[in-house]
Amino acid sequence: MKRLSIALILALTLAVSTAAVASAADPQIADVQSNHWAYQAVKKLVSEGYLGLYADNTFRGNQPVDRFTLAVVVSRLLGDSVAGSISMNQEDADLMRRLTGEFRQELVALSLRTKNLEEALAQYERDRTAMGADMAAWKTETGQVRDEMAKSLQEIIALKNRVTEAEQKLTGMETDLSALENSVAALTEDSAAADEKHDAEIAQLNSELETAKADAEKAQKDARVWSIIAIVLAVAAGVLGVLFP
Question: What pTM value is reported for the model?
Answer without folding.
Answer: 0.29
